[in-house]
Amino acid sequence: MSEKNDGANRDATKRSARERLQAERERQKTRDKRRRTLIVASAVVGVLALATVVGVIAANTGKDSSAKGGPVVAPSGATGKDALAIQTGKPEAKSTLTVWEDVRCPACKAFEDNYRETVHELEAKGLLKVDYHLVTLIDGNMGGSGSLKGANAAACAQDAGKFSEYHDVLFQNQPQEVDDAYGKNAKLLELAGKVEGLDTPEFRACVEDGTHNSWVGKSHEAFRAGKFRGTPTVLLNGKDIFSDQANQLTPQKLKEQVEAAGGVVKPSPSASATPGSGGKNGTEASPSASRAGSGGSSGTASNRSSAGSSNGTPQG
Predict the structure, then answer these.
(1) Which strands make up the sheet holding 128-134, listed edge to edge?
(2) What DSSP assignment string belongs to 243-257?
(3) Distance between CA atoms of 185 and 182, rounded to whole angstroms?
(4) Helix axes 146-159, 185-192, angle to 10 degrees
(5) What phi and psi values does residue 227 have, to the nearest 5 degrees?
(6) Predicted TM-score of the model (pTM)
(7) 171 bridge partner residues
(8) Of 302, 256, 310, 314, which is closest to residue 113 (Cα–Cα)?
């Protein structure tokens, strides 16, 4: 009886061992299957990520090329090589400011906000003319069409003789860089209402039809061919005003250089000195010292701003 029990126990032990082994094999199969599933899933995610990147690149490339379709129609009075510049100021002005900018570019807005008053003052005096070149850098970097459509609308404003006013309105009301508000014609037409006499059927048709889209595309091609560092790129008589980080051209310095080139003669300190204020104190209180002091203060603020514009330009 005892032998029978021992045999039964041995058989039970063998069955239990086989069952445990079989169970372990099943668990291993399950683990292997799960691992293969994870590997395949990871590979699929990687392929999708790559496809997304390629898609973004293709989309941005498509946006650049979309501006090139159709005939190139330059706006009225466009000037320069291939008629790619819109000029403001008097043609006979001695100094020329060349500006490459994007209506969506925040660094361009910083430049406009800091230099606008000085530029308009010098234009009004007949001392400075400005050649504006419009590009679509932000559309390519961020997606959307606001750079293209905004530039086209600005060119339409040039047709109406209202470029300078509308150009200023676009930068004064510029949306956040990631907000493609200028990609909507309704927004561009709404802003036209801020410029007296601009919102006409002709202007609306020009904006909605994208009349100057191909011209804007050609301007952007010229920008890329010029290998400029970014937007804004601003040249005074051919020299980049932001190239020297240690001594950038502030609005005050711009004014002084343009006035000097235009032959503006500044009154000598002695001519405006107050009678009886001679001696050391009178010399130190001369108008030229006062101008230099105010210029230095203004230059400090402007340097911070223009340095910021320069550093921001590769993004936009």
Answers:
(1) 86-89, 128-134, 95-101, 233-236, 239-240
(2) S-TTS---HHHHHHH
(3) 7
(4) 40
(5) 55, 40
(6) 0.66
(7) none
(8) 302
Segment holding 96, helix H or strand E: strand 95-101
Q: Which tokens hold the place of 34?
A: 């799960």
Measured in degrees and rounded to the nearest 5, phi and psi for residue 76 equal -55, 130
Nearest to 102 by CA among 182, 158, 16: 182
Q: What is the pLDDT of residues 90-137, one digit of tens each?
A: 999 999 999 999 999 999 999 999 999 999 999 999 999 999 999 999
Token pair of 112 as six digits: 């406009």
State the Cα–Cα distance between residues 8 and 295, nearest whole angstrom. 107
- Helix boundaries (H) for the chain: 2-66, 106-124, 137-142, 146-159, 163-172, 185-192, 201-209, 213-225, 251-261, 279-284, 287-312
Residue 146 token pair? 């606001």
Whose structure tokens read 């508000």?
Answer: 181
Q: Which two tokens stand for residue 162?
A: 């209202």
CB distance 248 to 303 below 8 Å: yes
Whole-angstrom distance, CA of residue 117 vs CA of residue 16? 93
Q: What is the pLDDT of residues 62-99, one digit of tens each?
A: 333 344 568 999 999 999 999 999 999 999 999 999 99
Q: Which of 218, 219, 176, 169 is nearest to 195 (CA)?
A: 169
Contacts of 59 (CB under 8 A, 6+ apart): 143
* CB atoms near residue 175 (< 10 Å): 15
